[in-house]
């Protein structure tokens, strides 16, 4: 009896603690959720222990969720049916746990912690994970070959180089000082096998072997662009690990890298993403689930211990500046002339293209965009509206009670605008709008900012809009979205198999395949030019021109408006475009 | 180029130029294009303009006759004035000519009624 009262007291104290720490309420009312008050991750209690207990009371033990958070000496169970939860409670509450002499006690709870993180299930573009790339025998052989006692003084891990020494200070190699030890012959099976997967690459000449003990990691990094080629291979031995992939647009994707797998990093994954491994002795269990018909990765609160892992990173050395098309992390691209390159690129692939396609382009765009009409419907008579990048003036309203000023770079489009609309036309660049500060009641900038090729120039475009607005004035800004899945743009049967890149102004840019999902943020989009003859479009296209676009990720446009003196009132996706309505403070 | 547009134009984006306003007009061809008269619009737009700049611009191209140099109180009730303002703001068009930056002297051509305010990369701030 004493024992029972003792447990009741413990339960009460636990309930108070749980309420304070996790805002979870214990209850006497049976439900689906149970907390085990004195066992958990910290006491070594695992999902398997739970399953063993369940086996004894039901033939096919099933729980929906088992949540044992790191460092906690309690854990949560979510059952499928209340009956099962009740039986479990009645059978085990207050009974002795097999590996301890303290009775197990538990309580029903109103809720369970939800620390799960949901991420995209799609790996970074250019990242290929080949599981079971080598056999267990091969793994054993390689592991023995590289399992050595500490030879270096790197804090976090043990490391050895072949072919060329990787210099940690400059993150490159000294091509004049090749090492005597080349990549061991045993590794050559990798090249042969990889070719069978249809992956083309230059045979690596540099290998870095890292031995990670549990608890060791590697900070987030990108392999420096210019010293190494476009394909980097990483083979994992002995233990799996969760590798974190981060993109500078804030995307985060955890990737489970099992032992015996080969990671092939190319394209965006190679050049535009950073990867790293957290220094811990465990990894979260990552599940793939279907939520709203979409596959997602879920970082659960369950964990798995890490073992010692050896990773083999193969690279191909190279000379000269990098010629990738991913500016952000590129060591060859950080030049003071970035703005000049950008302006040259925009001149060739935006301004000149629009000039050439003006007639054809104009013939495909007549009506104001419904969102523009909506945006301007409540604007009072006598308002000043600026349309920056007005094109042929399709968004100019036929109203005589507004002052509408159209700024446009292309002479061809501007002359259409001037002939067919009421707008006052000015030939100007959106980065340097020749209009007085703070006079506009509203600014439109529709499908323009995606033509600026650097982050700084895109920020500057927003800054210009803000400069022109009067305090309280509002702007509608729209840009093309990278994600076209919710628009009419995509052609169902077409898949983006793009592999073409086009070298222009010294950079390689991918050429997009029209009517397919975008694979890259910075792309050249083909325009098949058709001539206009006697007011009719010719059927045959005479020439293909490439327009430069920076297609936007979700939230990227809002981010661009941050700290610029405007409040984003509304942000939405419309027909393949990200849009914001913002108000000047 | 209508004078209402001119009232908003500046060359301040030029390197070394502080205000770049107002731009001087040199017109070689000026036309009158009739536009429907909306007294409410004219009434409401006037406070948003720099009237003195408008008056000088109108004088400089010979279309300022009868236009008061200063806005009168209760101008919104003076329909003759509103009509005159309407004409100067919206109907007088500089078809050909150029604009000149008051600080740097840089000229911006006006062709077929459209001022070309493009700057080269080297000219901007």
Automatic annotation (TrEMBL), chain A:
Annotated Fe2OG dioxygenase domain ranges read 203-318
Cofactor(s) listed in the protein's UniProt record: Fe(2+)
Do you know which InterPro entries this protein is assigned to? AlkB-like (IPR027450), AlkB-like_sf (IPR037151), AlkB_tRNA_MeTrf/Diox (IPR051422), Methyltransf_11 (IPR013216), Oxoglu/Fe-dep_dioxygenase_dom (IPR005123), SAM-dependent_MTases_sf (IPR029063)
Q: Where is it found, in Gene Ontology cellular component terms?
A: cytoplasm; nucleus
> Which Gene3D superfamilies does this chain map to?
Alpha-ketoglutarate-dependent dioxygenase AlkB-like, Vaccinia Virus protein VP39
Q: Write out the transmembrane intervals.
A: none
The GO biological-process annotations, alphabetized, read as: tRNA methylation; tRNA wobble uridine modification
Keyword tags:
Methyltransferase, RNA-binding, Transferase, Zinc
GO terms for MF = S-adenosylmethionine-dependent methyltransferase activity; tRNA (5-carboxymethyluridine(34)-5-O)-methyltransferase activity; tRNA binding
- Acyltransferase keyword on record: no
Q: What is this protein called?
A: (African queen) hypothetical protein
Q: Which organism is it from?
A: Danaus chrysippus
From TrEMBL, chain B:
Q: Which GO terms describe its biological process?
A: rRNA (guanine-N7)-methylation; tRNA methylation
- Which compartments does it reside in? Cytoplasm, Perinuclear region; Nucleus, Nucleoplasm
On the tree of life, the source organism's domain of life is Eukaryota
One Pfam family for this entry, by name?
Answer: Trm112p
CDD domains for the chain: Trm112-like
What GO MF terms are annotated?
protein heterodimerization activity
Q: Which GO terms describe its cellular component?
A: nucleoplasm; perinuclear region of cytoplasm
Under SUPFAM superfamilies, the record lists: Trm112p-like
Asked whether the UniProt record includes Calcium among its keywords, one would answer no
Keywords of this protein's UniProt record, alphabetized? Cytoplasm, Nucleus
Query: What is the similarity comment for this entry?
Result: Belongs to the TRM112 family.
| Designated name of the protein | Multifunctional methyltransferase subunit TRM112-like protein
Task: Give the originating organism.
Answer: Danaus chrysippus (African queen)
